[in-house]
Structures are given as C-alpha cells and as structure tokens.
Amino acid sequence: MATHSTHETHQTRRRTRIDDHLPVDHRLNTVYRVGAGLMGAFLVVFGVFGVIRHIGFFDTGGASVVGLNTNGTLSVLSICIGLLLFVGMVVGGNFASTLNMTLGILFLLNGFLNLSLLDSDYNFLAFKIQNVLFSFVVGLLLMVFGMYGRVGSTLPRDNPYWRSRHPDSGDPEPARRDRQDQVR
Questions:
Q1: What is d(CA 106, CA 114) in angstroms, rounded to the nearest whole number?
Q2: Could you tell me the sign of the dihedral formed by the alpha carbons of 95, 99, 102, 105, in that order?
Q3: Residue bearing the bigger pLDDT, 84 or 124
Q4: pLDDT level of residue 21 (50, 70, 90 thresholds)
Q5: pTM score > 0.85 for this model?
Q6: What DSSP line would sit under 55-98, residue for residue?
Q7: Which residue range is the domain that position 31 belongs to?
Q8: Which helix or strand (DSSP H or E) is residue 27 part of?
Q9: Average pLDDT value over all residues in the chain
Q10: Number of H-type helices and E-type strands within the chain
Q11: Region 135-161 average pLDDT
C-alpha cells in the first residue's frame, strides 16, 4: 500500500509540469539560449555598472549608466533578472523559451507602468523616457526570442510545435526520409 501511494504522488508531481506537453526541438533551443544570454549579459553589465557607482538605493536624482538612468534598486533588480536569464540560457529548451516570453511581457508591462509614473513621486526606479523605451525594446526582443519557431501561421510541417498541434496528421519525417532515399 505504501508503494502504491508513493507511486501516485510521483505521477501527480509529474503532471504538474507546465512545459511537459510541449515538444523539445534542439535547433530552436539555440535561439532561445542565445536570446536569454544576450539580454541577460546586458542586464548584468548594466546592473554591475550601477552598483559600482554607489548610487543611493532609492535615489531618483538621475545618475546615468550606459545612457540609461538608474539607482541602486534598478541596478540590483537588473542583475537579478540578468542572472535569471542566464539560468534560462543554461537550462535551455522550453524553459528558456517560456522564460523569455514571460520576462518579455513583464518588461513591456514595466515600460507602460513606468511611463505612467515618469513625473510622479512614485518613480522609485528613477526611470526616464530612455529607460521606458529600453524596457519596450528588451521586452519585444525577449518575446521574439521566446516565440521564435513556436507561433506563426506558416510553421513548416516538420516543426515540433506544428506536429504537437496536429497529432493526427501523421509524421512527415518518414515521408522526407523516403524522398531522400529515392534521390540517392
């Protein structure tokens, strides 16, 4: 009986994975990893430069690093998000893709939020318009890197995401191998 209940618990945990139903494609994995790595590297560099300048943690005075306004809070937050993107780069696969898309959406929402807070007392991240534009650009790039090869109306039939959405259409791989054998 104890073995049976342990087995059920293991199966329940296994079903709770978010990306379990998504296919893994190694060619697309490179795109997800490169996107996460590039954005993560820039955010870490930006954050480190901000921390080195010893700017106040909630200072909204206007210290500039790499052309963007920053303070201690934004610098530390940038380092944390950059490191999270590095984790996505190392793990790769669907995790990196989903992480890129999620953080891309959060960057876009952050841009809109801070756009509304630009001239207010609630601008505790010391955002200026160039930070808002940067947030929009990074958000869009992360979303493109995360969605690459996963969405679109013209995905090729050998794309794993197309195959997972059309499971009853048959596997195009054997037909391609047959054609390649006929050409030889």
A1: 12
A2: negative
A3: 84
A4: low
A5: no
A6: --TT--S-EEETTEEE-HHHHHHHHHHHHHHHHHHHH-HHHHHH
A7: 25-151
A8: helix 26-52
A9: 76
A10: 7, 2
A11: 76
